[in-house]
Design a protein that fits this description.
5-stranded parallel beta sheet; alpha/beta; single chain; 5 strands
Length: 143
């Protein structure tokens, strides 16, 4: 079975761990439930580097290099667009403009701080909730 990797981009610092991680956990479970010919692997950067334990990394450079490596080896990026985040903007720019990897954005029913037009141009499709995002990805990228 062919594996498809989905990188889950979004703000991680300056918000609670739950705000950063809950949507990632939920969408990972939702992708496990769909019927597809692919093995879906969701890459949650909180599983590798998070701000609960800063003893596991030496520098922000290490985190940036690792996250961009994971983006580079993904087939698709799904991004939480609720919060303004410079790191997230870099990830989706790298995916969309440099690597040509599709970026699916979730606005969570209109809650959005990410309003910069350059960010908007790096998102292939904008949806309002997790269910819409999973359905869209399933229909257009996994069928």
């Amino acid at each position: 079975m062919i594996e498809k990797q989905i990188y889950l981009a979004g703000k991680m610092s300056g918000i609670s761990y739950e705000e950063s991680n809950d949507w990632r956990t939920l969408i990972t479970e939702m992708f496990k439930e769909i019927d597809t010919n692919y093995k879906i692997k969701c890459i949650n950067p909180n599983d590798y580097y998070n701000f609960l334990d800063d003893s596991i990394y030496d520098s922000q450079q290490e985190i940036m290099d690792y996250d961009l490596h994971r983006v580079k080896h993904s087939d698709l990026v799904v991004v939480d667009l609720r919060y303004d985040s410079f790191g997230t903007a870099m990830e989706i720019f790298y995916a969309h403009r440099i690597l040509g990897i599709p970026v699916i954005g979730i606005y969570f029913d209109g809650i959005n701080e990410f309003t910069h037009p350059w960010v908007e141009r790096c998102v292939n499709k904008k949806l309002s909730n997790l269910l819409e995002a999973v359905d869209y990805v399933e229909h257009y990228y996994l069928s």
